[in-house]
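Lecture notes, structural biology module. Today: joint structure prediction for complexes of two components.
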Amino acid sequence: MTRIELPSYLEQSDEVKARFDDIKQREVILELKDLHKVFSTAKGDVTALKNINFKAHRREFVCVIGASGCGKSTLIRILAGLESASAGEVLLDGKPVSGPGPDRGMVFQGYTLFPWLTVKKNVMFGLRSQGMSTFTAESEALQWIDLVGLDKFADSYPDQLSGGMKQRVAIARALANKPRILLMDEPYGALDAQTRSKMQSYLLQIWHNIDITVLFITHDLDEAIYLADRILVLKSHPGEVEEIIEVPVPRPRDPDQFISPEFLATRKRIDELIHPPSDDGEDDKLNMIRLTRVGDEVEP
Amino acid sequence: MTSTPWFAPRVALSTKRTRVLTIVSFLLPLLIWSAVSYVPFLWHPKVVVVDPGDVSYFKVDMLVDREVFKNESLKVEEAGKTLPTGKRANPIYLPAPHEVAKAFVTSFTTEPQRRSEQWLHESLWHSITIIFWGFTLSSLIGVPIGVLCGTYAAVSRIHEPFIEFFRYLPAPAFGALAVAILGIYDGPKIAIIFIGTFFQQVLIVSNTTRKLDISLLEAALTLGAKRMQLLFKVVIPGILPDLFRDLRILLGWAWTYLIVAELIGTSSGITWFITQQARYKNFDNVFAAIMMIGIIGLLSDIILAKLGKYIFPWERSANKA
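The predicted structure, tokenised, for the full assembly:
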């Protein structure tokens, strides 16, 4: 086997560099300041998040990645206002947020569509909650349903849709409120590989078409690199920012880039961060048990 | 298709098999009942006298134990007198299916024995109104309390410990008290149904409410729903189909309290009819009346189930049973 010499993930083409310069010029939508989260359990306090500092700029696509249990779900729940931070601040457009609100749209991993409402009524839910008239809310909702390509299913109930379609409705429902940021908590975790990659392309298209900042949580390296401008890599126990990686893969993204040198270099770097070579003497290898069948040649 | 086994764990049956088994489940008890009633050598512990012969106290159509009949026959035979004749029969409390079937019609058409008494359909209707009021009053109060208990921990804490205690008190135990407070007519009967239903209802409804997927509430919060909207736009519509199912089950329980309730104060309704007919030894009517309760219960449940499918269209795909 020949080893391919990869460039450094820090190397950026002029085009990519220009793009990042542009992003950094833009206004800050979301800012996390010294965010801490401590859970009190029977066995004592557990620090889930420690010292998280981060800024997301307008129309930026940020992915948060980390091994399971690193607190990435806790992080997004704090951003959504579903949980409160133990210390530190979350600023949206420079103003501190407390509690959930329509200015931060959320897409959950489980399908959280309201089963008793049709697709259209699901998308109208947020608009109606804020006092928009049924008529206006309906025409707004139909536009968003159109945007995610489900106009034929506006009057279907969620249970009649496939998993991928449900998540598209969930995205439309979250976007209909015109939030400042779209928070996505492993939204494609429950989908099969094929639907998943299709949904990733959809999401990039939607993101490209409208003015929205996205914070996307995942544990899938390829997904993170494919989607993100920057990737926030979280370390486990406690959840701390390990590194913020600027993805050197140019846009528009395409599944063909999965094997491009920049992509692979980034992938290798994140992989090292998330799965550091074990230094505690623990052997990752499983015991080899040879199952023999009659007639198999067993080496001595 | 033909190779599908009848007994595969948790595998749904075909429509045809479901139908066949449904019919069999009713036919089987009927078949056993018919066998016991019509096959003379199965059970039949009594003898019905056809001709008393020379036994002094035998009369035509009298039911006597087989043992007694045999002894008396022996005695008359030894004395050289005419033997009595008889047929083997079941006790009076087990009428044959055809007699009960006939009673289904005749019990409706038979005039009450006394003028103050009610026709069967009047008794049945009276029972239904008792159930209706007891259950409706209980639901009007119990369902909202249950929903609030399931939604707000504080409401739950202030209600559920006491209700948890109270539900162990048997409803019929309040009979005398109910009569003292509410008189001897329908009041105490409705109260018994209410007591029997209400406390279970609050606990069951609050449990159902708690089972609502919490992420639906979280989703609503992130969409900007406020407190009252959470209750009325998420919790209530979210639990409606399950709530409806709960009420169907609870309605069945309400029927089980009916018989006790109707014995309190002046006995009335279908229970009065049953006790009265038993007193006259019209056991065919007794059986018919008991079955009528079953039929009314089953029919109302089937109607409610169909209604549920109609009013909760989103449940149709999820609920195939």
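Point to remember: The first helix of chain B runs from residue 15 to 38.
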